[in-house]
Amino acid sequence: MKTMVQNGVRGALTLLVFALVFTALMAGTYALTKDSVAKNERDARAALIAQVLPAGSYDNELLLDALPQTAAAQQQLNNPAGAQIYRAIKDGQTTAVVVETIAPDGYSGKIKLLVGVSRAGQILGVRVVAHKETPGLGDYIDVAKSNWILGFDGKSLSSPTADLWRVKKDGGAFDAAAGATISPRAVVKAVKNTLSYVAAEHATLFGA
Amino acid sequence: MALLTQDESKTIIQNSIWQQNAALGQFLGLCPVLVISSNIVNGVSLGLATSLVMLISSAAIACIRSLVPNELRAPIFILIIAALVTMVDLLMNAYVHDLYVVLGIFIPLITTNCIVLARAEAYASKNGVAQSALDGVMMGLGLTLVLAILGAMRELVGKGTLLSGIDLVFGAGAKSWVIHVIPAEYNYQFLLAILPPGAFIGLGFLIAGKQALDRRAETKAKLAAKLALQAVAA
To answer: Which of these, B59, B95, B155, B228, is most buried using a 10 Å CB contact count?
Structure first.
């Protein structure tokens, strides 16, 4: 009985020592790498946002001039809490906004998007940030797979007109691959939705 | 620390790459194998990341093996492996970020790969540091080989390409390295191969292939032994 207790205590202590040593190692590594990791993540995020803005159209730190989306905006844009709108500012004037939004009706779940809209209400760029569409079928909405998403560049609520903001199969202006219309349909809808939001909130987003 | 003799390393390498190949011989670590092997680039990337972790974890475990009470092996090995994976993840994220962007999503997956723990338990806990390190890295490379072949098969059958996605590793300039076995303009697709069922079917063929080769070698050896015996008798 006594040796059993002794063994148990010794085992527990050994485990404790190992746990302490390796937790300390991990904590040390974390402390050592924390700053570079955070910087890398910021850079990656800024690079992602910069993709939907023309080069040289802003002179601010995009991540610092972000507006948190209001509850109403989150609801309209299908976003979870914490979604942002990034502002591209040049010479003190907001030239464009980059809106985080979600297309909730993709073929297999949500499609996360970034939509860049100019002051004039034109689309500067759209990018899919995350999606679960079928590989090789619906995933052509991703710029890594095809140029489809670049087709939004330069479009606005008036061009094409509101009833043409659909895929061609539904009588609209946007291409979609045969047999894979659900993913682009969801994206077109979400982009149009974002444009309406930006138009409605123009004064708040761009200032006077 | 006893260094490796040439014979020893030869045995370890043969054993790790062929006889006890993680995916085809021991059937371990199949979860990441099946998920990631949709093309060569992903497969090789995960394979190399796993090899790195196995090299470090096997060496670390061989170093401390005399300090670990027998009945506490499992929790301590898991602790060490999880800690090492976390540290590799953080260090890569901080100092080789470009590589991390490509491999990053795979690294946490390595913790789920039971081949790492299996080698810690079956080999590193009983052998020297140098042997264990070699065993770990070779097991990883054996897995990489299977991932590469399976990835190539699925890519070729599913999309008619080889090396697609290489630009994610070597930058946009590498886009021209992608080999279109079936010209891109045909838009060839065979989804079954790219989706998970393709992974199971492909792995099945690879295992069958390895078994067939082993069987043939065995028959040949038996035949040779028989002939030798007859020669002696005559």
So the answer is: B155
d(CA B134, CA B121): 15
Q: For residues B178 and B156, what is the distance between their CA atoms, to the nearest angstrom?
A: 12
E-assigned strand segments in chain B: 161-162, 179-180
Is A36 in CB contact (< 8 Å) with chain B?
Answer: yes
A9-48 in b/e form (b: 16+ CB < 10 A) is eeeeebbeebeeebeeebeebeeebeeebeebeeeeeeee
ipTM for the assembly:
0.70
Tokens of A30: 């974390």
pLDDT score of B2: 53
Please provide residue B228's backbone torsions phi and psi, each rounded to the nearest 5 degrees.
-60, -40
Which has more confidence, A115 or B159? A115
Check B94 against A36: CB less than 8 A apart: yes
Per-residue pLDDT tens digits for B167-178: 767 766 777 778
Give the list of residues 6+ apart from residue B29 with CB closer than 8 angstroms, or none: B22, B23, B50, B113, B114, B115, B116, B143
What pLDDT is recorded for position B19? Answer: 81
**Could B191 and A136 be called an inter-chain contact, meaning their C-beta atoms sit closer than 8 Å?**
yes
pLDDT, tens digit, for every residue of B111-161? 777 888 888 888 888 888 888 999 999 999 999 999 999 999 998 888 888
Helix runs in chain A, H state only: 2-50, 71-76, 182-200, 202-206
- What residues of chain A lie within 8 A of the CB of B80, using their CB? 18, 22
Burial of B224 (0-12, 13-18, 19+ CB in 10 A): exposed
Kindly determine whether residue B79 and residue A134, on different chains, have CB atoms separated by under 8 Å: no
Q: Which residues contact B141 (CB under 8 A, 6 or more apart)?
A: B16, B17, B47, B51
Residues B16 and B204: their CA atoms lie apart, in Å, by 20
pLDDT digits (tens, 9 = 90+) for B37-64: 888 888 888 888 889 889 999 999 999 8
Phi, psi of A121 (to 5 degrees): 90, 10
pLDDT at B1: 44
Digit-coded pLDDT (tens) for A148-195? 999 999 999 988 888 899 998 888 899 888 888 999 999 999 999 999
**CA pair distance A16, A149, nearest whole angstrom:** 54
Residue of B nearest to A33 (CA): B94
Q: Are B98 and A44 in contact (CB under 8 A)?
A: no
User: DSSP per residue over A92-111, as a string?
Assistant: TEEEEEEEEEEEEEETTEEE
